[in-house]
Batch of 2 targets.
Target 1
Amino acid sequence: MHWINFPLIVIMVWSGLRIYWAEDVYAFGILDWEWFKFFPESFYESLDLNRRLARGLAFHFNFAWLFTINGLAFVIYTWRTGEWRELAPNRRSLRGSLDVLLHDLRIRKEEPPKRGRYNEAQRLTYSLVILLGALAILSGFAIFKPTQVFPLTWILGGYTSARIIHFTVTIAFMLFFVVHVLQVARAGWRNFTSMVTGYELVDIEPPESAETTASTEETADV
Amino acid sequence: MSEKSEISVEAYRQRSRRSLLTGGAAALAGLFGWRWVQTQPETNNIPGVLRSGHEFNESVWSKLFREDHQARTFDRDAASILRLNGRLGLRSEIDLDNWQLTVKGPDGAELGRHVLDDIKRLPYHEMTIEHKCIEGWAQITNWGGARFSDFMALYENQLPDNISDVYLETPDGRYYVSVDIQTMRHKQTLLAYDNLGEPIDELHGAPLRLATPLKYGIKQLKRIGEIQFLTEPGGDYWGERGYDWYAGL
C-alpha cells in the first residue's frame, strides 16, 4: 500500500498543479510582505502543467478515489494487524524526535534509541503524514462539493480557507517526500530492500557452529 | 516490545527475489495502465475512461444532492461585482430594448416568448453567495431575480414528466450550457437581472442570466437568448472541451 501510494500521490500532485496553474495566487509572506510566489512560469512549462486545467481536473477527481481507497486500506490494515503500535507516538516522542534531529544533523553524537521498528522522529513524522493524507482528502472533498458536504467546508473555515489548507498539505507532502527519500538513501540499500521485503538483512556475530544458525531459522522470539 | 521474526539468509534472498519480481511486475502493470489511460479514445476531449469517471462522480453526487442543502449565504456588505472572466457569447451587439427570451420543449417546438417584464412579474428573490470559478477563484456577490422553479411552473402543464435537463444558450448561439433539472429547480437557482441591487451590466450578462451557487461559473450562462427543456443532457460548451458536464458544487 505504501508503494501504491507513491504513484498515486505523484499523480495527485501533478494533476493538482495543473489545476493550480489556472489561478496561481498563493505566495509565501506575512501581511503585505511577499517573500516568494509559488512556482515561476518556467516551472509549469518544464513539467507541462500549463493550459491543462480540464485534464488536470479529470485526473484529479478520478484518482482521488484511488488515493482515498488506498489510504483507507492502509489505515484498516495497520489497525487490524496491530502495526499501528509501531507507528503511534506518545508523550516522549516530541522530545525523542528532537534528539533524533540533533543526531541526524550531526550536532549530537550519541544515537537515540529506536522503540521497536522506528525511532521517535519516524513515529512522529509517519503518524503526521497519515493525518496529512486524511486532511488532504477531507479538504479536497470540502472544495469539491462545498454545498453538499457543507459541515466539512464549515469546519475547515469555508471554501477559500479549505483551498489554502489543501494547497499547504500538498507543499507539506512534497517537503516530506524530499526528506523521506534523503533519509532512506542515507540509511542505505539494506534498509531500502527492507521497505520492500519486510525483512532487513542483519549481520550477526559469526556463528559458533552450524547447528546454532540452523536452530534460529524458524524461531520467532518476543 | 514488538514481535520480531527471523529468517535465514537463504530465505531472505528468496524473499528478495520474489519481492523484486512482484514489484517489477506491479511497476510494469502500473506503467501499462498509465499508458492505457493516456491513449484511450477521447470522449469530448478527455480520455474516455476519465469521462466515465466524471460520470461516476456525477451519479454519486447527484444522488447525494439534497434540495435543502443550501449554499452558504453572506452579508450583503461582503458582496462585490464579479471579476470578468470570459466574453463567450457576448461579443455581438445586443439591443436590450428588443431582447426576447425563447422557450422550447424537448422536441424543439417553441412554447413561448418572454420580455424582461414577464420575468420581473415572478416573485423576486435576492441572494448573496460565493461565486466559484472552475479555475479556482471565488468571490462573494449578490444576485436578484426570479427563481427558475417559478419560471418553469409557467410551463409545467406543457411539459412531459421526464424533463431531466435544461439547455440555455446566448442569442448568438456561441455559448451554451446544459444543467441538470435538480439544480435548476433548487431555490438558489435564479434567472437574475439584478446585481447588487442594480440591473446587471452588459458584460456580466444583461438583461438576464443564470445565477446559482450550486454550479461553477462556466454553467451560469450570461445573456440568455433561449431556454430548452430536455429529457436528456444537451450540448455544453465546456463539457465538450474536456470539462465535467455536471460541474456541481
Target 2
Amino acid sequence: MNLRKYLKVYKKFLHTSLASELEYKTNILVDLITAILSLVGSIFLLSIFFQNSGYIGGWKFEQALIIQAIYTILNGITNTWFNPNLTEIVKHIREGTLDFVLLKPIDSQFFISLKKINPSGFLEIMLGFLLLFFCIKINQINLNLSFLTLSLITISCSICILYSLWFFISTTTIWFVKTWNAIEVLRSFLYIGRFPLSSFSFSLRIFFSVFIPIAFITTIPSEVFLGLSVFWKILLEIIVATIFLINSRKFWLFALRFYSSASS
Amino acid sequence: MISNLINRKILTLLKVQYSNMLEYRVEIALWAISGIIPFFMLNIWTNNNLNESINISSTMLSRYFLCAFFVRQFSVVWVVFSFEEDSLMGKVSPYLIQPLNPFFRYFAQHLAEQITRFPFALIIAFFFFIFNPESIWIPNLSILLLSIVSTFLSFLIQFLIQSIVACLCFWTEKASSIERLLFIPTLFLSGLLAPVVSFPAYVKSWIYLTPFPYLIDFPANLLSGNKTNIIGGLIMQILWIFILFPLFKKIWSEGTKKYTAMGS
C-alpha cells in the first residue's frame, strides 16, 4: 500500500516537472548539442592519449571507450535526477522552504531526491547506450544472461554510490548553508571517472578507491563488460554501495536534527 | 576630471565587491579546489610516459599543468550566470538607470574574487611543489609580468564572450545553457586538459585561428617557460579583444532596446 502511494506520488512529480521543463524546448536542443560535443571532446582527449601508445594503464583504446560510454550514461542520470533535485536542497535551506517539505506526510528524502526531472539528461543516457552498443560490437563481447545480470548489478551499484555522494554533499548544506561549490569539487573529482583507474599513479588510485570511491563507479562495470572482473571486486562494490546508501539515509536523519528553519 | 570620476567609481566598486567576496571565503576556497583537474591530467600523462611522444620532459609538463591551473584560476568567468539571475529577478532595471554600464559591476566582482582567490591558489601550488619538488622554478621578472598581462587578456576575452552570451538573456530566458555549450570547446581546446602541442595535426592546422589556445595554453606556456610565440600570441589575444568588444557593444545596445522590465 505504501509503495503504491509513493508510485502514485512519483507519477505526479514526473508529470509536473516534465510539463515545466518542456516550456524551454530550445534549451533541451542546446543541451543535446552540449552532450554530443562533450562526448566528442572526451573521445578526442582519449585519442590524444592513445596517439603514440597502444595501451594506457593496460587498457586499449576500444576498451577505454567502454568507460566513456558508462561515464556518459551515469552523467546523464546525474543530470536527469541528482543535479536538479539535490541542488534544490541548497535553495530549500537558504529560503527556509524545507519546512514545507518536512511537514508533508511523505518521506522527506524521497521528496527531495525525486521531485524534479530534467529531460535533457535522457538524451545523454541514450547517447551513452549508443556508444556502449558500439563498444560491445567492436570489442566482440557476446551477450549472455550471467554477463547481463552482472553488468546490471554493477551499474546499479554505481548509481547508488553516485547518488549517495551527491546526497552527502548536499546534506552538509544544513550546517554550512552555501555548498554550491562543494558540488563543483565533487563534479571535478568525478571527472576522473572518464579514465581507467589503472592509468593513475598508485597514491591517486588509493585516494579514489578509499576516500571517494570513484574507482568503483566506472571502472568495475567496464571490467565486467570486458570479462576482466574478479568476483571479489564485484562483491566489494555491492558492499560499498550498500554502506553508502544506508549511511546517506542515516546522515540525512542525523542532519535534520540540526535543522533550524529560516527565522528561528 | 572625467578619468578621475571613473577611477573613483571603479575603486568604490572594487572595494564593495572585495568585502562582499571575503564573506564567501570558504566558497572560493572550494572553488579553487574544484580547478585541480589539470593535475589529474598531468598524472595520466606522466604515469604512462605519454610526454615522451610529444618531446616534453615530465618536469616541463608538470610546470605547464601547474601554470594551466593558475591561468584557469585567474580567468574563470561566470558573468552569464549572475546576469541571468539578475535579469530573471528583475534586478537589472535599477542597474540600467544608473549612469554606469552594469557590466562594470560584474567586472569588479570578478576582479575582487580573483584577489580573494589568490592565497588559496598559492596554497594549492605549495602542495603541488611538495609532491613534485623537481618542478620548482622561478620565472624571470619580465616573463612573469608578460604572463600576468596575457592571463588578464585571456580573462578579458572570456569575459567579453560571456557578456555577449549574457546579453542573449534579453531575447531568451535561459542564456546559461548556451554558455554551457560554449564551455565544452573551451574545456577541450584551450589546453586545460592537454597542451595544444600534443593535438593531432588536423586540429593544430586551424586551432591557432580560434581564440581557444590563447585562453590557457598560451599564457601557461609563457609562464612555464615552454616554447611559444610570445609576440604572436599577445597580438592574437589583443586582436580577439578588438573583435569581441564592438560586438558586445552592439548586442548590448540592441538588447537594452529590446528589454522589457518585469511587469511592463
